[in-house]
Specification:
With 83 residues, the chain is α+β, with helices and mostly antiparallel strands. It is built from three helices and four strands. Helix content is 40%, strand content 22%. Strands 1-2-4-3 form a four-stranded mixed β-sheet, with helices on one face. Strand 3 and strand 4 form a beta hairpin. The longest helix has 18 residues.
């Protein structure tokens, strides 16, 4: 199964860049019919993860994917599943 991976460690403090990268990876997954996107906001204080989850909950984004799983073994990782 093909998957895409987005590591946000390098841009954790660049708000607009984070949003544009999230949008880019979601659009790429939709266009290429990728079933899984792994997003790594990192552990830190949890603020970046909350920001990523807020982005994914936007109605225009939420309609594009099937579900989100939080990695039970790694707090700093999310999986976005597509139909």
């Amino acid at each position: 199964m093909a998957k895409l991976k987005l590591d946000l460690h390098d841009i954790f403090n660049k708000g607009k860049k984070i949003e544009s990268e999230l949008d880019r990876i979601i659009q790429e997954a939709v266009e290429k019919k990728i079933k899984l996107v792994e997003i790594i906001p990192g552990k830190g204080s949890g603020q970046l993860k909350k920001s990523v989850l807020r982005f994914l909950e936007r109605p225009d984004i939420k309609k594009l994917y099937h579900r989100i799983d939080k990695d039970s073994k790694n707090f700093g990782r999310l999986f976005v599943h597509f139909k």
